[in-house]
Structure formats: C-alpha cells, structure tokens
Amino acid sequence: MTMNNTRARGVAGLATAVIALALLSIPPHANAATCTFSRDLELGVLGEDVRCLQQFLNASGFTISTTGAGSPGSETTEFKTLTQAAVMRWQEAKGVPATGYFGSKSRDAYAIAVKGGASSSNIDTATPDSSSSAVQALIAKAAELEQKLKAAQSGSSGKGYEGSDAKKVRSLMDDVITAIEDAEDEIDDNPDAEDIDDAEDSIADAKDDLYDGLRAYVDGDFDEAIDSLENAQDNAEDAYESAGGDSDEDEARGLIDDVDDRIDDAADEIDAADEDGEATSEAEDILDDAQDKLDDAQDAFNDEEYDDAIDLAKDADDLVDDALDAIGEKAGDKEDQLYDRLDDLQDDLDNVQDDVDDLTDDGEDVGDAQDYLDDAQDSLDDAEDAIDDGEYSDAEDYLDDAEDAIDDAKDEF
User: What gap in Å lies between CA 263 and CA 321, rounded to an integer?
Assistant: First the structure.
C-alpha cells in the first residue's frame, strides 16, 4: 500500500466520522430552521430571512445547492435563481402555486409545516433554530474535510500518516466520538440536571475541538491534532459529568470494589475445588496476579490517576476469569497448551517475516514492521523461558505481547 493511499484511507475514515457525528447530533426537533417572515420574498431581495428560508429548504430536502453558496452550512442572504427554484419545488410539494414567489400563501404553508397549523403571525423566532444551525455548521465542516480528502488522494507526498503519532490521532478519534455520544445520551436522559447548561456548553466545545483535531490531522500536524482531540475528550467528559454521569473517579472506585469482591469469591471457589481434589495451583497463581493488579489499581486511584486505575482494575477482572478457568488444569496440560500456542505464533511470525523481506527486496515501504517483528521474537523467546521455568502466567503475558506485536507488524504494510 502506498503512503498516499494510506493517507487517503485515514482521512476518509475521519471525514466520514465527522459526517456521522453531525447526523448523530441532530435532535428530533431540529429537522428544519424556524423563521420569522414579515415580508414577501422574491428574486433579488436580501436579508437574514432569506438565509433562514434557505436553511429551512435545505433541511427539508429541497436543497438549494449541493456545494458552494446556498449549500447546507453555506446559506446566504441573497434570493437568487437557485433559491427561487428550490422554493418552486417546495411550493409544488405543498400545493401552493409554484411561482417561486414566497408570499402570504407560502408563509401560511410554511407555518403549517413548522408549527402544525399556526398562522404566520404567531411565529415568534427571528433566526434559525440554534440546534439546527449548529448541525448545519458541523455538516459544512465535514464538507470542508471532504475537499481536503480529495487533495490527499491526488497528492504526491506523504506526511507520515502511518507513524505512531498519526495512529494515536486515529485512536483518540474513536475515543472522542464515543465520549461525545455517551455525553449526548446522558444529556438526553437528564434534561433537568442541575448543570445541564454547562453540559451543553461543554459538548459544543468538544465538537469544535474535534473538528480542529481532524483538520490538523488532515494538514499533517499530528501534535496539534492530539492536543485538540485530548481537549475534546476532556470537554466531552465534563459534559457527561455535568449531565449527571459518573465521573472517572466514581467509575474507578466502583470497579475496584467490584473486582475486590470477585477475587474474594474466586478464592472461595478455588478453595472448594482444592478440597474436592481438583488441581488448583495454576488458578491460585493467576488469582495472586489478579490481586497484584488490583493493588496497582488502588495505588493509581490513590494517586488520582483514574484512567490508569480503571484499566488496571479491568486487567485484574480478566485475570479473575482466567483463574476460574484454570481450576482443574494440571501443570502438564497447561504446559502443552502454552507450547502449542508458542509454536503457532512462531509460524505466524516467520510467515510475516518472509512477507517483509520480499517487500523490502522490492523496494516497498514496510514502515516499522521489522521493529515490531523483532519485539515479537524477543517476547516469544521470553515466553519459552517462562514455560521452561513453570511460570505459566508470565508465559501467557509474553505470548500476548508477541501476538500484539505481530499484528502491529501486519498493519504496517
């Protein structure tokens, strides 16, 4: 895969994500702008009411233009021929004489469409609905990214879009979108929360930061992209908490308590199995590792490193599952399983190494693939030593590291 194709693929995914986020952000009532029309509108007139009419038509499916002036997010104050044509299409759909002249009959039809039968004199907002405007603006930003995507696809020079910083941007992007979606769900579920206004302000800031991060990524400024996306994540988390969601501190505290209870329950189950004559030595070792992880999680919590505490507690939880699965396993069976996995991973590494060698001989760019393969081989060697020494839990960790490194190598080409 060439660098340009890689770059285009990454940009395409991020631009698509912005468009998806824009659509997810549309509240049920924001399908059209709400306007005040105190005069007739026709070809040649100017004003904010014209812009509002254009926004209403675009949001209602009677698009002024797909690009440029009049397109969603780029509405203007000028009533020109494209606006006239869109008005005519809307009038025809509403049973109003399709003249392109937006007069009293059109205003009444508009009032029925927006207010469900209210007269035009009762429409009391002079500007587009704020949430609709925000959505249109976000869609416009997505359109700008799409234009940059085209440039990325046709460009001739790469900017390191497969480096570690670029990958961090793409990973952060996933985290930010998830955080924004979670915050918006919390806002929707708790509209009467005490700090709901702060939540809505924070989510708006998060979306602005998100776009800034995407734009920086497209421009190849990965440091700026990371800073913006981290700000977006912080703002999304603030919005989530302001809307009544649990903070990272609350989540970490609850998770640590839950895993602590699970470890106690698992210890009882292992003791019962031991009394029944089942093999439990491996399970006991793994449960000890789980307790160590949980202790590390508690230390991280005490240091107010709540994200790390959550990750460590989740690792401990996984180890509890492994400990319970290991009840009844004999040392010989476990050793055979680990050696089998070691052999399979070694075969996989050798195959990927052959591919890397071939591509390198052909002058192809394989990125950091060789470094990842070297790391994988080191982990496999460590795993073999651990198996020989009967340190099966350590061996599994080394094998996991090797598998991850091999997968990273595959992703490089």
Answer: 10
pLDDT band (50, 70, 90) for residue 295: very high
Q: What is the C-alpha to C-alpha distance for residues 87 and 100, in angstroms, rounded to an integer? A: 5
pTM of the entire predicted model: 0.41
DSSP string, 324-352: HHTTT--HHHHHHHHHHHHHHHHHHHHHH
Give 102's strand partners.
41
Alpha carbon dihedral 59, 65, 67, 73, in 10-degree steps, equals -30
Query: Residue 397 class from Cβ within 10 Å (0-12 exposed, 13-18 middle, 19+ buried)?
Result: middle
Q: What is the distance between the alpha carbons of residues 229 and 213, in angstroms, rounded to a whole number?
A: 5
With tokens 């004999």, the residue in question is: 330
Q: Could you count the other beta carbons within 10 Å of the beta carbon of residue 346? A: 18
Give yes or no for a contact between 38 and 137, defined as CB atoms under 8 angstroms apart.
no
Task: State pLDDT tens for residues 321-368.
Answer: 999 988 987 666 778 888 999 999 999 999 999 998 988 888 888 888
- Cα 139 from chain centre: 17
Angle between helices 3-24 and 196-218 (to 10 degrees): 160
Model confidence pLDDT, tens digit, residues 97-110: 889 999 989 988 88
